[in-house]
DNA sequence: TTGAAAGCGCTACCAA
DNA sequence: TTGGTAGCGCTTTCAA
């Protein structure tokens, strides 16, 4: 492996000058610049990032803590982060916490041991206090929590609002008996969606029916189970609001198995707008979470925070995307 | 940040001894061991990985080149790699080439500049020759190509065989007019699946109908379009073999739009077995690609290759998973 | 078993 | 504008 010194020697300059040329730290005379350039070319010299790291104390790496490597939801956000980091000289180091506080903490230690310059945290179970504490060691940008200290910034999407939109839409379409399949009860977003469901019902003077709210865990299987229970309970309902799209997929399958048509017999609405929701049968009406934009936002923010620049975040907004899984009833 | 020297000073030993203790490089007396341990504990000392890297010339990082950060297909493989790397001291550095040879080459340079100890390449458009060349600089394990030099190992799944299975199954179920929606024509796997389709038809004495083979690109939209063309062509067919699951989703939606039932009117079979294929309506019969296992295999292989150990790879096998999108006809 | 010392390849300071 | 030099924090000889 060729080093600065070798380049310097061949080009007849000092290593310091080569370094200066490389980093644009100071002016280098035209003559030497050319000499250096051609030697770098000839020797195919590539600076050793590891040595740069050691010297500068920075790894030019951003740690990204996700909760799942296989979830389309998080994948979108990661793609956004990746895009935002492109061309900044920072590379993302991705680890997964699997929705488990201990594992998250452990992975973050691993990230810090690798001297990441910043951390992006995607949801998870860590307490805000823990994150604040961590932020003393490394600047943090988080999604799914409200934080705004100088070294820890975080934002949420307005899940409550999104749920209100979904339920209002159902009501506008004439639905009165609306079932809700919840997400995990220890999940902030899931709770907000439930609250939105309840409040919107109340706002429209619709009495909430306890039996129409059934537990789920954001996975397809729970949607399937929930609908089966709903159906067996004998409750009447014309629409189901699913806490997320995955749940809606499961719900839809349960309905299909019983020969119940969507949306003719029962309407279904989801939350998230995963890619595949455009191609379900029927295409799913759902509340879109602009995760890719969220990722871009996070990526940009962490770079700015590292550079001690002002964070001018524009938090992306949710919006209802109407497709074909909801029917108007009277 | 506390350093070895500080630990050494407080513990009353030399830095070298601390290092030896940390790495188990040599015997350290019980007495000093305890002293060092307690000081490390007290000072909360964490070795600076960057410095270790510089010294040892290794970054304890594995570069992973994927083609898409949002594809469920690649995500599974990445999760497998992640699992295999767990506890080995190696962390994956993931970059995406977006199915573009130039971008792949560029990202790989970035990975090498960061001194990754090994490279895992997931498909892509790079030529085998390029990969072989690259492998002089860094050991490589690749998926989707057959390579077996000491520093570059690669394997494929038997897509041809998988396609034969799918088509044989359709034929067993009584189908004779089987349409095929292809993948991109410059994609190795897509070609193998097409060949499997053709050969299996031939093997059963079924004449291939040119009009039943329609172009696609592995995306949902192409499946949708393809079915529309198929339908408009007026050709008779009772089953569609889609080059991958995404295509099948699109095809299924096109059928749905026309009020054509699956599988009662037309059977559909896919390839890949993405997670969501279990929850489509009806659940999709498809050829399973065990991508998670592939990822585990790759992760283990690259670590072994770096350690100059024997690679004892057991290449995972495809298999047909029968669900509900194919009906028996007579 | 231990310590001293010499770097790994780079950047940044200081002096010229 | 340039070169010499001193480290960054660690590991690894070499001697003791």
TrEMBL record, chains A, B:
Keywords of the record: DNA-binding, Repressor, Transcription, Transcription regulation
Keyword Transit peptide assigned: no
HTH lacI-type domain: residues covered: 2-56
GO molecular function: DNA-binding transcription factor activity; transcription cis-regulatory region binding
One Pfam family this sequence matches: LacI
Origin superkingdom: Bacteria
Name this polypeptide is given: Substrate-binding domain-containing protein
Source organism (scientific name): Massilia cellulosiltytica
